[in-house]
Please model this.
Amino acid sequence: MTAFGTALSYQWRLNGADLAGATTSALTLTNVQTSDAGAYSVIDFQQCRTVISSDAILTVVTVPPSINRPAA
Model:
């Protein structure tokens, strides 16, 4: 996700709560876990106005491991 503009400051949020240290124009998630799932948004602050983005929903799907046996 990325926000664009000039003279902006940013605050990324997850489920309406500020993400600590997430104050850049782009939010990059690595090693995503099921606990990272939720509604992400960003607040853009520019001089006299504040804009809150629509939510971007992240769903994390886990696939259980499987064991494949060679044919006999």
Observations:
- The chain has a mean pLDDT of 87.
- Residues 9-58 form one domain.
- The two ends are 49 Å apart (CA to CA).
- The chain is about 0% helix and 35% strand.
